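REQUEST ID: PR-0412
SUBMITTED BY: lab tech R.K.
PRIORITY: routine
TASK: structure prediction, single protein chain
INPUT:
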Amino acid sequence: MGAATVGPTRHPRWGRISGLGVATIVAYGVAYYSYGALIDPIRQATGWSATALGATFSAILVIGGVGGLIGGRLADRFGTRPVFLLAGTLGATGIAVGSISTGPLAFGAAYGTGAGVVSALGYYHITQPAAVRAGDGQPQRAIVVLTVFGAFASPIFLPLTAWLAHHIGWRDTLRVHALLVAAIFLPCASWRNSSASIGGGDLSTPGDAGQVRQILGSAWSKPAVRRWVLASMISGAAIDIILLYQIPIMVAAGLPTATAASIAGIRGLAQVGGRFTLPPLLRRIGARLTTVAALAMALTAVVLLLGSRHVTWAVGYCLLAGASLGAISTLQGIYTHELVGNKDLSMLMGAQQAVFAVGSALGPLIAAALLQQAHSYKPVIALAAVGVLTAALLLATERPAKVGSSRWGSSQKTTL
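STATUS: complete
OUTPUT:
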């Protein structure tokens, strides 16, 4: 994408940011949110085990997390054209092949790879820098516009996927998803390219392997960083359990699938409220304690999920979960910046996201095994609650960080 020169009539800068916003909605909607509305229909139609289907979601997280480092490096060096081209071809093809798979292993390999590629090449680590380049000297406004679009991924794709799965079946639903990915990302690949870096060169001018190991080792030597990475991995695992099983839990409690999917969609909009409350909290108590408060709110949301047979409880869960998870995802970047400062921040945050994704993949895998043995969602909910509580305690007992502290907004990273 052009950093300074953009076609004056064909691709206006703000029109392009809107296009990136639509791509973000499709990426998160297809590769992340929709699977929660598909897992029950797939299991009921095929008889495949909850463990196998949970492992597929874990594969998506691992491929997306590790592949995100490769995708980000590719975009920094060669621009967004090859990234979006691969997302629109390999990603869509993998999802389409998953729709015709007849066994859980083949399905997991095809769909997990396809959705993983879409997440590695279409999430915010790709679209945010591209929006900044197209922002006409207004990077903060560009990111705000992009993330406003992104907030609609869950409200759109959860009910849409549930409706499609009910009316045309899960296989045709995946084919619709594959077509959407191709229809959105391939036109984006036609935009003018730019390989210019925006982050000071940390990722676009990689050092040798020894330098990388030295930077990572230096950060890891700080006890606060180790505790933060551990807390984010544990909370990420708990959050992915919640998001994957929220609809099946509400359905098992007695809500119709369409109602559960529609209520779950509220979570995506509620995350905007969680972000609006951050500035005063960050000024008053700092990023670490604000994160603890957000985790406490998430724990309350998990408790409400137990009573989700009542619509009021289910709506309360989604409002609290949306606000807390929206805040937590934003706080990841802010608190990381406080701990490590500006130097090598892009690479360190990329590494953190990769570790976070691998750790998060374990949560749904363990939850699926519990579900397979217990035939009840109560142990799954308990596992998520323990994870959120553990992460909160890890951060609550940490000494205030003195390294790299800065104003809350100087290096914020807003994610879904």
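NOTES: The chain is about 80% helix and 0% strand.
REVIEWED BY: pending
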